[in-house]
Write a structure and sequence with these properties.
This protein is α/β, with parallel strands linked by helices. The chain has 13 helices and 16 strands. The strands form two sheets. Strands 1, 2, 3, 4, 5, 14, 15 and 16 form an eight-stranded mixed beta sheet that branches. An eight-stranded parallel beta sheet has the order 6-7-8-9-10-11-12-13. The protein is globular and about 70 Å long.
Amino acid sequence: MNRKMPETKPMTEMIFTNARIVLPDEVVHGSVFLRDGRIATLDSGSSAVAGAVDLDGDMLIPGLIELHTDNLERHIQPRPKVDWPHAAAILAHDGELASVGITTVFDAMRVGSIPEGKGRYPKYARSLASELWALREAGALRINHYLHLRAEVCSATLVEEMSEFGDRDRVGIVSLMDHTPGQRQFRDISKLKHYVQGKSGMSDAEFDEHVAHLKALRDEHGERHEAEAVAAARRYGAVLASHDDTTEDHVTVSAAHGIRLAEFPTTVEAARACHMQGIKVMMGAPNLIRGGSHSGNVAAHELAEAGLLDIVSSDYVPSALMTSAFLLADLWDDLPRAIATVTANPAAATGLTDRGRIAEGLHADLVRITRVQGTPVVRGVWSHGRQVG
């Protein structure tokens, strides 16, 4: 009896040659061999193998890893009160990240809403995540996506919303967010007032009412919400992050929760305390590029100069991630160290041991890049060995 042989997926191979390969501790001239979406071998010098892609001396770096981006929300709501079709927004977001060298992203979605009042904001994370995973299942996404749930403790619905996520949702990070006026990011309430009124058009009286409402929510729900967010992160198997730590006391509380990643500490004091506790410090690329925080908090370059900056996030400008890495390379005079802030360090902080470096056996997430008048220019992006940008 004739038996049909089982179909096997054909082996795929690719070779990059004549590249300046950025490794964890050095930059070498050589070739990288890919096989079935992974890095097979690295060799010094150029390859004469037929079909090898000559990078003409361009740099080859690992694909960038983005831990905190509001970019998807920007595509969902490109203008106030405009709700863009979600599938189209997700695909545009995915394509934009691929085009600037990001091959792994933790999409930030807020959980915890305020359904009533002038400053209300609605629930959206569960439905948006389901749409994202449906597109992933259909093979429509170019890069790797995980979730970063931003747990807003100063809200009314956090416990309910977090209960809607489970093991299949690829929740990689849960960050404890507390935007109660008068502390952390908005210690200076006048800066919060300027931000909120510029965004929503509140009157002075409406803003005062809004602040009172937020403080009341924090008093009523804050401790329970914080405890639930910590417990939920454990259920998901997610990394727990703090947000806007300002004082040493904030960091002490973070460490007690088991936090190992600090997003955007607002002072040198907090960043230094994080390092004392073994907590990695992440700052925003726009802060680094602009030379300071739009909220008046500590400048990222100050932490970089003090040796207190470990990871960079694009925050709200995806292309800023690559730009910031090369700014750090110039500041530190150390390209591998700078590239690690957007590749190896975020991978290690989130337990992704299969990417973030150019090394045998890891995912072939790679970016071809050069500099034109000091500006990094992306010339090719590969995710799992497949060209996506």
